[in-house]
Amino acid sequence: MSLTARSRPDGTRPPAAAVEEPTAPDAPATVKESVPRGAGKRGKVPFRVRLRRDRTLILMTLPVILLLLIFNYVPLLGNVVAFQDYDPYAAGNGITAIFHSPWVGVEQFSRMLDDPLFWSATKNTIVLFVLQLVLFFPIPIALALVINSVIRPRVRAVAQAIMYLPHFFSWVLVVTVFQQILGGAGIIAQTLEKHGWSGFDLMTDADLFKYLVTAQAVWKDAGWGIIVFLAALSAVSTDLYEAAAMDGAGRWRRMWHVTLPALRPVIALLLVLRVGDALSVGFEQFLLQRHAVGAGASEVLDTYVWNMGIQNGDFSYAAAVGLVKGVIGVCLVLGANKFAHLLGEQGVYKK
Predict the structure, then answer these.
(1) Is residue 288 a contact partner of residue 172, using CB atoms and an 8 Å limit?
(2) Bridge partners, residue 84, by sequence
(3) What are phi and psi of 84, to 5 degrees?
(4) 1-40: per-residue pLDDT in tens?
(5) Which pLDDT does position 5 carry in this prediction?
(6) For the whole model, what pTM was predicted?
(7) Separation between Cα atoms, residue 224 and residue 274, nearest integer Å
């Protein structure tokens, strides 16, 4: 019911400021929202209040923070040896030897640019990254969509368990399984020989090695990636699918207009992280198969750093290669995240 101001005897109305809105007699009193003492004008909770409120969560994350500091951030200080001719025997231990090793400036980086083995390892790394990005990255998305379309929960649970079980296998076991299947003495080669066909050995074929390691990575880790996409699909409201079905959208139209848009933020985030990890395609997987196909096909930057630093004892040169690899990885993350912002996605962090 609208209230209007009464007219004066002369027919004019009083100004709007003079009109007083009557209140209901039984209207409850307004309760002011309690704001912590010391809060800003915008209601920002002070740091002391947030610290006391979240102390349990902070205590739970302290072990993870300590592990990151000890194994990820403290070793970054050792990158200083990339600018030295580091000799671990120059002092009583490896840490104090840093202060007794001579400085050589950017000599290690100049040597790296003139090393053909470094460029060969870089080429193999980039080729394997592009191949795995094209062949490996879409597979968990496709498998998640297939599993999500299965109606029976028991079938979905069994299929998902079978697919992500190889994730818990070590690379030694994965390479052994492929050797027993695709090797010269494997099941397929022996079966072909029994039927008069010539056998084959894919495990020693240098030309097909990049496809072999991609297949191994798909079998081992594709099922584990399904979990992330299924978690994103579980957050999609079923009302969207019902509304699309009422509008006449079929299964493929619902997948294109409802399911895939729901997966876009997760796909963008994982793609940014994968691009940032472009120069780290693997270590143990390639090291185990190095002697089978040769260093020309299996040498990547991780194994190159291992061979130069650990096997040859050239720690300064290996640190220089690792430092360049890390800097390029950071640049790739920033560039991929900027591209995600241009596409309207959040990426790793907001603008």
Answers:
(1) yes
(2) 103
(3) -125, 170
(4) 444 445 455 555 555 444 444 454 444 444 444 445 544 5
(5) 46
(6) 0.76
(7) 15
